[in-house]
Fold:
Amino acid sequence: MPEQLLTVLKICLLILLYLFFLRVLRAVWAEVQEPVAADSGGSLRARTPAGPTAPQSPRKRHKRGAIRRLVVVEPAAAAGTAHLLASEMTIGRAPGCTVVVEDQFISSVHTRVFQREDTWMVEDLGSTNGTYLNRRKVTGPTVIHKGDRVQVGNVVMEVR
Structure:
């Protein structure tokens, strides 16, 4: 092989190697950064937790039998822990999440539970291990109902 071709191949290999490292660094950076969300104007802002005690507006009263909370079912050590639903909440390891869960299989910002009109939905936020609804992997925004089970990592929560 001509020496020029070998030089071009070496350069291509180096470029691919640098692109790989850039991708790895970007993934690590995304994991350690504070969660960010787009506001209604499309600009980015730091996510502030709505908290389980976020007040409901008077026009959004709970209907009888309406979904109000997520209750941890598994693991047994955390069973019974209840999280009141806000209009939008995130579940993950990051301190900025509404529900902070310490589990090695949960991403920094793993899952989003939100209300769209009178319907509650769950959405995986690109986590490594995925989000499961009634043992089925969530691939996009999915409607949840009372009695459904949402699993993130080793934590299973029941919708009540």
